[in-house]
Amino acid sequence: MVNFASISRQRIFIFIISITISLFILRLFQLQIVNFNENAERSSGNSVKAIEQIPLRGVFYDRNMQLLVQNSPAYTIRITPSEYDTTKNNILEAALELDRGTIKSIIYKNRIYSKHIPIRIKRGVDIDAISWIEENQENLDGVDYIIEMQRTYPAGVNGAHLFGYSKEITPSQLKKDSFYVPGDLVGYTGIERTYEKELRGIKGYKYIVVDSKRREVGRFKDGEKDVSSVKGEDLVLGIDAEIQRIAETELVGKSGAVVAIEPESGEVLALASAPAFDLNMFSYRTPREYLELLSRDKLKPQYNRATMSAHPPGSTYKILCALAALDLGVITENTTLYCGGGYTFGRFFKCHGAHGAVNVTHAIEKSCNSFFYQLIFKIGLEKLQEYSNIFFMGRKFGSDFREEVAGLIPNSKYYERFYGENWPRGILVSLGIGQGEISATPMQLAYFTALVANNGKSHQPHLVRGFLDENKKLAIKKTESVYVNISPEALRIVREGMDLVVNGAGTATNVRIPGIRVAGKTGTAQNPHGNDHAWFIGFAPYENPKIAICVLVENSGFGSSNAAPIAKKMIEAYLKPAAEKKKDIPQILATAR
Predict the structure, then answer these.
(1) 192, 164 in Cβ contact below 8 A?
(2) Are 350 and 368 in contact (CB under 8 A)?
(3) Angle between helices 318-328 and 369-379 (to 10 degrees)
(4) Which of 182, 272, 412, 543 could serve as a FRET partner for 136 with CA atoms 20 to 30 Å apart?
(5) Concatenated DSSP letters of 145-165
(6) C-alpha closest to that of 119 among 167, 183, 169
(7) pLDDT computed for residue 336 by the predictor
């Protein structure tokens, strides 16, 4: 009797076997015939070494196409851990003038990465060390050198807080961006950091065939698969190298900052902070001694005072108070307030003199404290904050500025936290003359001055004007337009007051420049921790402003004698006849990028 159940099971088994064999055959056909070229390249990966080609980093030009930051060739020593004999550490460290244990430490820090990835041991090596490596190459397996680029500054502009610097990437940064490998440099501060992705370029790769001992045999497929690196984008800054040098020179030996802005465009013409540090010391691995020297310095040279140092603005803030009062209509151009040498509110607050009945323009000219002591009560604390914020005080700019503080413009809630609802109204008196809890940065006051100078119109303040293409044509960086909705009449009146400060009988007559009409305002801000801070804000030419400026010199006394002269030198240099300047401005490729 036929067992049909057994026959069925056999047929099913044969069917499954047949299907399985067929699938194996199809897979082998796919691997060996259809995808032969792809898999051949993959299998050769074990014998092909990819050598990374680091792209040139983009360089910086000033607004007149003077080269500010460039790349210069330098030697870098590397070791490949899989090929290197660590018993040679002491010999190699002696030859490279490294501290004992440096190489061991570097290898340890990079232990989480492939042993076949070269590790940079020292950048900026001199030719004598390279010659020694060459002479001893047969005893230094895994040691090689490459030519990389380091930043140099040919224009004599230090730009420590402006340009910033690059440093070796950290393990935490490596996790965030697959572009980098251990030892790569990445923008760490300043423009180098803000525009890292534009500046870094695109990496290339050269493929080399190696034998079982990782020794180079030749180029893979005669270089057909090699990928060329692409240079990073070159930046054109709004900076004027000449006045930037003046700012840096004038701040030597001082503590403070200078910011100059082109009122119409919002381009930063100069930005300097002092004390500064030497960017050249950050081109290689920065010596520990130098870092310790910077960290011990009580004046904090790495601290960017232009955008991060917020101080009471002193009498420069009277311009804001005047604008707010005029725009609100609580005073007119003809309104007078009496100055008898001071003002009493709970106690007596002194003025610089007894000015009698003064209107707003002459109060600005004479820097009459009594006028503004009284004016603050007409404005009110909430409106004072509102108008300050309109002019970007008490808030951050963003854009190019990664290192900045907002400063402080207090309101009622601020004082309620300290004193309760019945906070003492006498606090307002000091606020009217830019003292007390109010604070602003030089960058904020420079931009405020630019807006006043240009009738309330400008663009978002920025450091980078645009990008150069391979034909040296400039693509302008798009920036947001800014319009401050303030009465043109109010702006006209305060500008006239600022004009009188310099060209009348005001506090900055020493800023007068033959042939250039300058307007401005001095300020001397009380400092509970030492000598007063000196301020000056100004713009020129008065009729058609091309430069607005703010100078802060900390712990130096009067703004008229310590801050204003720096502004005068910079304004005069910037506005001298164009024929005296060599300009080679690139053709504009587009109005926006």
Answers:
(1) yes
(2) no
(3) 50
(4) 182
(5) EEEEEEEE-TTS---HHHH--
(6) 183
(7) 97
Domains of the chain: 241-580 (3.40.710.10)
- Can you give the three-state secondary structure of 544-556, one letter per residue? CCCEEEEEEECCC
Which of 565, 577, 505 minimizes the C-alpha distance to 541?
577
pTM comes to 0.84
3-state secondary structure of 396: coil
Question: How confident is the model over 426-457, as pLDDT tens digits?
Answer: 999 999 999 999 999 999 999 999 999 999 99
Average pLDDT score over the chain: 88
CA distance between the termini of the chain: 89
Residue 511: CB atoms within 10 A of its CB come to: 28
Residue with tokens 């730009």, as numbered in its chain: 159
Omega before 301 within 30 of 0, i.e. cis: no
Cα–Cα dist 556/254, whole Å: 9
DSSP secondary structure letters along 337-353: EEESSEEEESEEEE-SS
The DSSP result for 200-253, as a single string, is S-B-EEEEEEE-TT--EEEEGGGGTT-B--BPPPEEEES--HHHHHHHHHHTTT
Report helix, strand or coil for 37. helix
List the structure tokens of 290.
């130098």
- Residue 196: strand, helix, or coil: helix
Measured from the Cβ of residue 87, the count of other Cβ atoms closer than 10 Å reads 7
Read off the amino acid at residue 212: S
Residue indicated by tokens 């917020």:
310
Q: What percentage of the chain has pLDDT greater than the value 90?
A: 58
Burial group, residue 102, by CB count within 10 angstroms (0-12, 13-18, 19+): middle
